Amino acid sequence: MWIEDMLRRVVRQSKFRHVFGQAVRNDQCYDDIRVSRVTWDSSFCAVNPKFVAIIIDASGGGAFLVLPLTKTGRIDKVYPTVCGHTGPVLDIDWCPHNDHVIASGSEDCTVMVWQIPENGLETPLSEPVVVLEGHSKRVGIVSWHPTARNVLLSAGCDNQIVIWNVGTGEAMINLEDMHPDVIFSVSWSRNGSLLCTACKDKKVRVIDPRKKKIVTEKDKAHEGARPMRAIFLADGNIFTTGFSRMSERQLGLWKADNMDEPICVQEMDTSNGVLLPFYDPDTNIVYLCGKGDSSIRYFEITDEAPFVHYLNTFSTKEPQRGMGYMPKRGLDVNKCEIARFYKLHERKCEPIIMTVPRKSDLFQDDLYPDTAGPDPALEAEEWFAGKNGGPILISLKDGYVSTKNRDLKVVKTNVLESKPATKAENISVVQKHASPQPSVKIEDKLEEVLREFKSLRDRVILQDRRIARLEEQVAKVAM
């Protein structure tokens, strides 16, 4: 009996102990892609059940590719891109509630939101649905709210966090004076009521964005000078990656309500690549992908010591430039696939599939608890008014079938109107089922003209900035 007990202590029981990674065949990769060389520690890749988006090198501005998942093989050099930014793109993020909407942040100080056509791009896309201007320096982080429709966060090198209502194109919350230095990462809590940030001043902060106050903070969560990352877990705890004073890579687990002492801190290795954490709230597994590493390490987080349990490492020969992570609803449940990564090489994107070996062909409900679906729990107005809502869960038993997404409509409030806009006028999605009255047609036409005028105006502003920048550079050279 005591031998069994000893064995149980030595070999921890977990259904994820034997998770293994496998790269797909060469013909299922995306080849001949000029992956961005910009020096910024974001993942450079974003994935959803329909598309993979990759930030690429582009002359004369910033661009990213958007490929249907089925568009594998060699990608033609003239394949159309999303190319509206005038400076390199630093971060991209798919909207969790609409698989055709993606946000991008750039060195040109703007955030742009794009609507991707149903079957992908046939011509270059240079006109965003909306341009969000409010940062004075480059925008390095964009992140959609997990449960409220049309709520988008951006963080810039001006050390500010701005939270936008994309449906009206307005900056609703501006978090200034909270971060004295560059913000390395921002993570929403499970229901989107709190933010967790990692900053160059070595502090991890938990922030209530609507009250504009810091709930708790930890100084020197990791003592090394290199960049940290901090993410919220499903139970409200915080997982961090960073460096020790001796430049060893570390991971840490913290209670969000009291960060005085860590639940645990573990040393990993002495590599110098920033560890990007990808978290699955359904299985409580964290995958760590180091920039410049050629491996993905994964850990299970539980309530038993040592709390963060090493599972395994997936290794290849080639180092990774970036990494995309597929939401759970995009996985193949028939093959017991629990995660899929899109690894960026210098010239290609390679999908990597993580699988739990099972003999049965039946649906494995212990591997696939109900997961966050594409429906938002709240409208933007409700969240900004103080309401909270957890993710609306869906079952993956019969596989996820995507439905047609409605187009993102931006209805800007008219500052020239003397009367305040009513709530009905601000609603971002216009119902299409109304009977076609002549006045409605005229309004639609007017709205279309206004939208075109707005996009032209935005374009002119961007070009003006670019000209001013070039004039400054010429003046410096002349001196």
Automatic annotation (TrEMBL):
Transmembrane segments: none annotated. PROSITE patterns: WD_REPEATS_1, WD_REPEATS_2, WD_REPEATS_REGION. Residues 9-73 form the DUF1899 domain. Keywords: Actin-binding, Coiled coil, Cytoplasm, Cytoskeleton, Phosphoprotein, Repeat, WD repeat. It is found in: Cytoplasm, Cytoskeleton, Stress fiber. GO terms for molecular function: actin filament binding. Residues 439-473 form a coiled coil. It holds the Pfam family DUF1899. WD repeats lie at residues 82-116, 132-174, 176-217. GO terms for biological process: actin filament organization; cell migration. InterPro entries: Coronin, DUF1899, WD40/YVTN_repeat-like_dom_sf, WD40_repeat_CS, WD40_repeat_dom_sf, WD40_rpt. The keyword Coiled coil applies. Its main location: cytoplasm. GO terms for cellular component: stress fiber. Belongs to the WD repeat coronin family. Regulates leading edge dynamics and cell motility in fibroblasts. May be involved in cytokinesis and signal transduction. Forms homooligomers, but does not form complexes with the other coronins. Interacts with Arp2/3 complex components, including ACTR2, ARPC1B and ARPC2. Binds actin. This is Coronin. It comes from Amphiprion ocellaris (Clown anemonefish).
